[in-house]
Amino acid sequence: MKVLVTGGAGFIGSHIVHWLRRAGYEVVTADNLQTGKRANLPADVPLYELDIRDQAGLADLFAAERPQAVVHQAALANVRESMEDPITYAEVNIIGTLHLLELVKDYNCTKFIFASTGGAVYGEGSFPNRKAVEGDEEGRPSPGSPSLPFTEDSRPQPKDNYGANKLSCEHYIELYNQNYDLPYVILRYANVYGPRQDANGEAGVVAIFTGAMLSDQATHITGDGGQQRDFVYVDDVARANILALNSELSGTYNVGTGFPTDINTLYRQLADLTGYGRTPSRLPRPAGEVRATWLNCSKAGQELGWEAEIDLSEGLRRTVEWARTAAVTA
Ligand code: NAD
């Protein structure tokens, strides 16, 4: 089967490409290299250097390659930027996805896999354990928020344009499924980390800390560092995409570890792994930042046979090892 991976030169996309090839798929990629890099891909993987806003360019790609499935990773994924430039974000993330859906429909593709975001689609959750936010008036979620961890049935309440973009795409994908029988899998990723991550991405905190610590630069923690996130290793995410592609089912699945980690804990683990001894400075907590998010992933376990296999300490060890090598060869 020939699979088109959009955003294939990016962090997660390039890992998916490697996993697809290992599983025997033929792969072509489309990426405008805005944040992706050609060097992230093996030399023999075709890369169409085009923007998903370019409808005619995508149509030419489909006519030439006739992919049977699409794994759609290309997106602008910076929450802060999405608030500053909502139009460009909607054009890339929503209109770009619609261009692909139209082609997937016209070419009768057998599967559309979509990278959504558990971090931004659900918004703020409430804590099952009040102690987790004791003393944190500022970060206390509003009453009525769904309780953590989020399940696929939790009511989505995006707090930023990026989350709204992704949720809007999810609705379109479900409509294409209802109206044109398009088989799909929506994967709502938690905070993904691992080798090749750029420090500017949605979950760049691991990359940011690792880069600064290895080069002995100053580090900063925003707020009190008690913010909780679900950090999932990129290989686990790539494997979820392969299982989604092989599955007969259409549906929406959380892809995370099911466990929260606070930023202070993450910081300490990375400082130990890198031998970093400096004290972080404290910056104000960004307005509107979600206090805590983590995902219940049992649906992916039951229906896709997927669960995260790489725990945080092993994932961070692999990430730091990769970053040390990348720093030497850069
Ligand atoms: P990334 O920036 O490394 O990858 C995105 C890729 O899309 C890049 O290669 C970029 O060049 C490409 N791209 C951007 N705009 C494009 C355009 N207009 N046309 C063509 N290509 C374009 O980021 P990533 O972390 O690998 O994210 C991959 C996907 O996963 C995104 O859809 C993102 O929203 C989603 N996601 C990521 C995380 C995370 O923690 N990293 C969490 C949830 C969801």
From TrEMBL:
Residues 129-163 are annotated as: Disordered. InterPro entries: Epimerase_deHydtase, NAD(P)-bd_dom_sf. Residues 131-140 have a biased composition (Basic and acidic residues). This is NAD-dependent epimerase/dehydratase family protein. It comes from the Bacteria. Residues 3-256 form the NAD-dependent epimerase/dehydratase domain. SUPFAM superfamilies: NAD(P)-binding Rossmann-fold domains. Belongs to the NAD(P)-dependent epimerase/dehydratase family.
